[in-house]
Design a protein that fits this description.
The complex is a heterodimer of chains A (about 110) and B (about 110). Chain A has about 110 residues and is mostly beta strands. In chain A, about 0% of the residues lie in helices and about 50% in strands. By secondary structure, chain B is mainly β. Classes of the chains: A mainly beta (about 110), B mainly beta (about 110).
Chain lengths: ~110, ~110
């Protein structure tokens, strides 16, 4: 069964450092997403990506964040200068279409900023 | 702004019991998703529905569009069903940005 793959599963970084979280979406999917979940809180939308550009982003997704699809398979989330409050589980998801279609989630990357 | 609320927040039951988790949302949606999150953190999609009822094994999901309410039922619950169950809504327009509820932590004791 096709799946969304995220690497690494856990990353520890020092405050102020840049991190890149990587995702390989399902191959025939067209819409890609990043969500995050701070410990004990709801999962929150960060950004959606379609046709090589951001289609929607939340207030959380400020200038410190960027996304990229550098090749035909990877989808990355970069945080330029990490803060303590960026510590969270980051989930990548993909879907075949927009609207009411099923989203498939990766296993998540737990980011710890120290 | 769409808000998604779940109840209860925590639910503990004995093996074999019938489980119901409720979800309500505040604005019209294109679909309602039920997801399962295991202790390791990974999220698995269980159901996506926009009307009526869906069944998969011991899991049943229903939605009432007029009342903006959905329920997830588990029949003959088992300790392996212990997880956090999350409902999330898809907006009517725009990209599929899911709005998540806070989750229901279910514990099934043997």
């Amino acid at each position: 069964e096709p799946e969304v793959t995220q690497t690494p599963s856990h990353q520890v970084t020092q405050m102020g450092q840049e991190v890149i979280l990587r995702c390989v979406p399902i191959s025939n999917h067209l819409y890609f997403y990043w969500y995050r979940q701070i410990l004990g809180q709801k999962v929150e939308f960060l950004v959606s990506f379609y046709n090589n550009e951001i289609s929607e982003k939340s207030e959380i997704f400020d200038d410190q964040f960027s996304v990229e699809r550098p090749d035909g398979s990877n989808f990355t989330l970069k945080i330029r200068s990490t803060k303590l409050e960026d510590s969270a589980m980051y989930f990548c998801a993909s879907s075949q279409d927009r609207g009411s279609t099923e989203a498939f989630f990766g296993q998540g990357t737990r980011l710890t900023v120290v | 702004k769409n808000e998604v609320e779940q109840s209860p927040q925590n639910l503990t039951a004995q093996e074999g019991e019938f489980i119901t988790i409720n979800c309500s949302y505040s604005v019209g949606i294109s679909a309602l998703h039920w997801l399962q999150q295991h202790p390791g953190g990974g999220i698995v999609s269980l159901f996506m529905l926009s009307s009526g009822k869906k069944k998969h094994g011991r899991l049943i999901a229903t939605i009432n569009i007029q009342e903006k309410h959905s329920s997830l039922h588990i029949t003959a619950s088992h300790p392996r069903d212990s997880a956090v169950y999350i409902c999330a809504s898809s907006p009517i327009q725009g990209a599929q940005k899911l709005v998540f509820g806070q989750g229901t932590r279910l514990t099934i004791n043997p």
